[in-house]
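#lab-general

N.A. 3:47 PM
ok so I finally got the sequence cleaned up, no stray characters, all 129 residues accounted for. can someone with queue access submit it? mine expired

B.Y. 3:52 PM
send it over

N.A. 3:53 PM
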Amino acid sequence: MLPMMTRDDLFNINASIVKKLVDVVVNNCPKLFSVTTLDAATRFIESSLQALDGDEDVYECSYVESNLTELTLFASRVKLGRNEIKALAPYDLQGLTEYEQKGLEALKPKLKASIDNGIAFANKQAVTA
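B.Y. 4:20 PM
back already:
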């Protein structure tokens, strides 16, 4: 735990972050909002707090720059550190079944559109901040 902070303080910070995330998603990307999105965001925030607290064994999935496919970003398992991603878990797509490979190929246009929208949104926020 961070110095001078109680568990209630951390809970309130976490709740505030999640509320802000939900507000941004609902206001800017209403079609993306779902309970699953909220759950994933909450889990990632909790894991980030664990890493900030010094836990050395925290892993989550996150979009990261990748050369696994032609997409610029790909969801991969990462090890979180106090201030950064410490490691990218080794992974390749060699073990995919034919069914999984066809599914991935079919999803790539939708993934690319989602990635492009996310990057555009992040760039817009950076400009207005």
